[in-house]
Amino acid sequence: MNNLKLAVEVVSAHDLAPKDGEGSSSPFVELQFNGQKFRTMTKEKDLSPVWDETFYFNITDPSMIPSLNLEAFVYHYNKTNGSKVFLGKVRLTGASFVSYSDAVLLHYPLEKKRFFSKVQGELGLKVYVTNDNSMRASNPLPDFFQNNTYHIPMQDQTQLPFPDPVLREIPIKKTQPNRHTFHNIAKSNKGEKQQPNSAAVAAAAGMPNVSFSMNEMKSAKPAAKVMNAFAGSASPVDHVVRETSPVLGGGKVVGGRVIRGNIPASTYDLVEPMEYLFVRVVKARDLPSMDVTGSLDPYVEVKIGNFKGTTNHFEKNQSPEWNQVFAFAKENLQSSILEVVVKDKDVVLDDVVGNVKFNLYDVPRRAPPDSPLAPEWYRIENKKGEKNNGEIMLAVWYGSQADEAFPDAWHSDAISPNGSSSSSHYAQIRSKVYHSPRLWYVRVKVIEAQDLVPSEKSRIPDAYVKVQIGNQILKTRPVQSRMMNPQWNQDLMLVAAEPFEEPLILTVEDRLGNNKDETIGNVIIPVGSIDKRADDRPIRSRWYPLEKSMSSARDMENGKQKEKDKDKFFSRIHVNVFLEGGYHVLDESTYYSSDLRPSTRVLWKKQIGVLELGILDANVIPMKTREGRGTSDAYCVAKYGQKWVRTRTVIGSISPKFNEQYTWEVYDPSTVLTLGVFDNGQVSSSNGNGNRDSKIGKVRIRLSTLESGRIYTHTYPLLMLHNSGVKKMGEIHLAIRFSCTSFVNMLNLYFKPHLPKMHYVKPLNIIEQDRLKQQAVIIVSARLSRAEPPLRKEVVEYLSDSDSHLWSMRRSKANFNRLKNVFSGLISVAGWLGEISTWKNSVTTLMFIAVGFYLMRHPKLRSKTPPAPVNFFRRLPALTDSML
């Protein structure tokens, strides 16, 4: 039996023509395919209606699909006489039908019915072919609406075809009162798209049913299907970006536009709203002594259901202060009682000082911009029910991820494998925002030295200068001078980061032999005292005295020169040192730069807009084994400009939900946002620093491809290149919006060069750029690794493409194929001539020889008579003279 179906999702229409005489229309869509007709509901007085209805057409003969057409007619329903007025149509041929995995939402412009018809607007459709047997019933023509009722089996959460927020709005008619109630239904899995079976199948399986009346039912778009990311080898079909329509904080996103409905406005409008129970443990006072010695080592344990979080313990302190926040996801709450227990830390068994209990039904709700909830003192109740064991200051409230306590709070999904929730463990998994330092190029021109004094005065020194900032070391070429005044005139460039902590060290050394050098003198120059320039104007050079020892040079740097040394004769070095502010210091791949501003703020361009990113959820492959099953501890890191963001780590889940939103300022549209997904290797590490974080994949998004004000919601594949080839590691679900604040400033950027002016006035060679880029990445990774929690070195290097300069066989083959495409015409001509010379096709070769003989016998065909236009221009002066 053939179960092939053509699925048509009628999503929305935009900017339809008004037809009711009052500047509006009441549109509906009628679909026709292979003799079958369906229609949507009528949207009263709406020129940009949203239907989100799905219809399924039977395909009797799959071989006839290319010859069949799908037609979608948009009509205005006239209530006065019950007629319908044509608003436009869309016609799709069967050759354009694809499978579900390749289907995307497309907005088709409406076509005219006749030449003089007035049609405007577009219709959003998603069309695909499927062979799924268990599909939701379609909505046929109007006469079917009145008496039909669908019976949808609620077997499990994965079979719900509707998004969860829509389900809450649907009135449910229970066919069996003692079966399922609505609050028992878990949230639908957005990673799969499954439709319920028919009522007959449900009855045969003995499953409970929930009935939806057609008059009460609201259409909803099925959740986007997620490809199987755990297969060993994924097909190229899995490597595509797919558009989604999630329900975010600002409303439901359809075609890049937000349909708000009854959802209130929110600052976190690019992520799904998530409710949390927040518990702030501030401090305690007048706690009793529990040990024989009369001391107390208190800590607090916050428990709700199976989730438990603990604070740090203080030794011998009866009035401790913690000021720590705990956040429990409301969807995971398994109890209606919150218990805050104060305990005494002991070697064998911890003693219970007392507890405070809260009924969750009495907990208040808070939403920004409300001020933070004021904590209160609560008496601690002991095991006997007595409230004389001191007091504890607490604040308990319901909030969302928009709460200012969310980033630093301990989360219920952050429990380590051993059940620990200590601050040292949580420091490795919480969300943070980082700022990379501002980088500068340091140009050092070593000109000459005078009066060098080598250890052996009889020999001519083979002198060179070593220039050092931190771990960066460069050397000039060695030069010999009989007068002890060597000249180099050599430029060296290094990278420095603000604040300038590392000084510039110049060391003049004498090369005595292989791997044997002798120091002649040193000078230390604070980088913060070096002159800065923003263009190519010359900077005055200076002479610096050379100190024999490094300690003396440091004293000279700090102004601690001794009185007896002020009139002492010194060797000296002549250098020109300055900070190049007119360049942009590249710390990432040139092709995927997220920031093109020069180092000096004076040359910075004006801000043109704001980039907002909502990191919703992900589906990743298991990266480790824990308790006999595969799992992952995933987190995301996004980079744009100098700002890096890191989400919290969701422990023990291959389908983590982040729902975190971040914002960047945009100064150039020709930039790229980079986001990477990693597996946290510090969760199972005892010292929190032993394992490397594993790479899962990364995504790059060019801002120049984004339309201002539009919300883009897509799932992006996470791909990694292994020895066996490209492998899909999972998917990441993102919501992105670029808002242009100044169109004039953005337009002005298109008339300016891509990089700052100094890159063209005094360009750096490719080899030097790659070397400086590597030094910049090392500096940025070292600075960010000093943060708490640290952004690890492997993460920074992966997002910055630090290995892009290395040779790659795959990249070499790709470049070779590009060259073949460029010279494909010449290669084809050469191949054709080769075939003629080898008589591969004797007819072609004979014709080529015949043409050659013919040209030899008729030399006039090869005459050098110029063509008519040339003769005309040669005669033009004579014609002009005759006219004059």
UniProtKB/TrEMBL annotation:
Keywords linked to the UniProt accession: Calcium, Membrane, Repeat, Transmembrane, Transmembrane helix
SMART domains: C2 (SM00239)
GO cellular component: membrane
Principal location: membrane
Pfam families the UniProt entry points to: C2 (PF00168), PRT_C (PF08372)
Family of the protein in this entry: Belongs to the MCTP family.
Annotated membrane topology: Multi-pass membrane protein
Residues in C2 domain copies: 1-108, 258-378, 420-544, 592-716
Name this protein carries in UniProt: C2 domain-containing protein
Highest rank taxon of the organism: Eukaryota
Location(s), subcellular: Membrane
InterPro entries reported in the protein's UniProt record: C2_dom (IPR000008), C2_domain_sf (IPR035892), C2B_MCTP_PRT_plant (IPR047257), C2C_MCTP_PRT_plant (IPR047258), C2D_MCTP_PRT_plant (IPR047255), MCTP_C (IPR013583), QUIRKY-like (IPR047259)
PANTHER family: CALCIUM-DEPENDENT LIPID-BINDING (CALB DOMAIN) FAMILY PROTEIN, PHOSPHORIBOSYLANTHRANILATE TRANSFERASE ISOFORM 1
TM region(s), chain numbering: none
